[in-house]
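Hi there,

I know you've been waiting on this one. I reran it after we fixed the sequence typo, so this is the corrected version. Both the input and the resulting structure follow.
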Amino acid sequence: MTRVGRDFGDTMHKDAVPAVSADVTFASSRFPDYKIGPNNQIVEAKLDQKVLSMKEVVARETAQLLEQQKRLSVRDLASKFEKGLAAAAKLSEEAKLREAASLEKHVLLKKLRDALESLKGRVAGRNKDDVEEAISMVEALAVQLTQREGELMQEKAEVKKLANFLKQASEDAKKLVDEERAFARAEIENAKAAVQRVEEALQEQERTSRASGKQDLEELMKEVQEARRIKMLHQPSKVMDMEHELRALRAQLTQKSENSLRLQKELAISKRSLEKSSQPYELDGPEALGSYLRINPLSDDAIELSTCSIQWYRLSSDGANKELISGAIKSVYAPEPFDVGRFLQADIVFDGQRLTLTTAGPIDPAAGLGSYVEALVRKHDIEFNVVITQMNGVNHLSESIHVFHVGRMRIKLCKGKTTISKEYFSASMQLCGVRGGGNAAAQALFWQVKQGLSFVLAFESERERNAAIMLARRFAFDCNIMLAGPDDRAPLGT
C-alpha cells in the first residue's frame, strides 16, 4: 500500500487548488453593466441616450460579443474543480482501506503476543530470554502501529477537510458559470436586437430612398407633361392637323387592305370559275368562321359523293404545312377557331382518281366574336344552353335543354340541379367543332370528357358554339393544357 507523508495536505492545497486568477482572463477592468433584480432576473443598466452611427453600433455589438466569448473561460475553472473533487474522493477511499489494514495488523500483533506469552511459561533459559525479547519487539511494533494510526487519522481529517473545500469551490464555480451563462444569453439577445435594429434601419433607409426616387420621377414626369402642354398651347393648330392626318392615313390603310383582300378573293374565284369546266365538284359556302363549306357536284354526271372517299386538311397561309383533320370525312365541314387564318382543302378520291379542292383564301374570323369572348372572359363561370345530340357515338333521343358550364379550371354539363358530367382540364380531354353533320355542324361541338365518355352538343347559335370553344381552350391553356380535337396540333397563338 502506498504511504502518504505528513505533508500531503499542503501538497494537495497547492496542486489541486490553483489561484483563481491563473485560468480566468477578464476582457476588461470592470464588471459588465448588469444588475440582479427581483427573482434573480438580469436587469440591464440604463445607458445615456446617445445617437450612434450605424458603424459605431456594429463595432460596439461586436466588441460585446468578443467579451462574452472570453468570459466563457470560467467553464475551464469549473472543470478543474470537478477533477480536484474526484481526486479527493479517491484519496478518502484509500484512507478507508488503510484503516482496515491497520485494524487487521492490530489483531495479528495481539494474537502473536498471546502466543509468545503462552510460550514463555513453557520454556526456560536462553529460549525464555529470546521469547521475552520477541514480546518486547511485538510491543514496540504495536506502539509504532498506534502512532501510525494517529498519523492516518490526522491525514484522514485533512483529506476530508480538503474534499469539503473542493466541493464548496466546485459549487461556487457552478454558480459562477450559471451567472456567466445568463449574462452571455442576455448579451446574445442584445446582439440580436442590435442586428435587427440595424436591418430595420437599412430597410427604412432603402424605403426612403425608393420613395424619394419615385417622388422625383413623378415630379419629372409632371414637369415633362407641363412642358408638353405649354408647347401645345403655343402650337395648337399644328398638333391638331397632325392628329387628323394620322386618322385619315389609318382609315385609308384599312380601306386599302379590305380592297386588297376582296380583290384577291375575286381573283381566286375567277380562277376557280375557269377551272370548273374540268372539275366535277366545287366548294360552296362562305369561307368564314360561323358558316359551313359543302362539296357540290357541278353536273348530273358527277359520281355520288357517298361512294367517294373524302378527307379535309388545314393548310398554312404560305402552303408549306398541311395538317390532316381527323374525322373530317364528310361532304360538309364547319370551320372552327383553329381554322381561322388558314386555308382548307378537301381531297376526293373516286374511280382511282384524286381531286383536290381548296378555299380561295384563308378562313376569316367571325365579326364581333373577339369582343364577345373578351367580355365573357371577365366572368368566373360562363353558361351556355345546349342539347345533347349524341352520347358515346349513339344518337340521344331526348331534346331537353342542358347547361354547359365553362369554368377557369373545369367544364361541367348539367340538367337542372343534376350534374351529368364534370371534369377538370386534363390531357385526355378533347374539344373541337363537329366534323360533319349537315347544316347544323356550325352550331355543334364534340366534347370528350375522358376516355370512354364523349358528347356531341348543339348550341343555340354559331357564335355561342365558337365562343365556348375559344373560352375552354383559353382557360385550359392557363392550366398548361392544350385543348384540341383528335390528333390536332394547336397552332401558335391560339
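Quick highlight: The two ends are 101 Å apart (CA to CA).

Best,
R. S.
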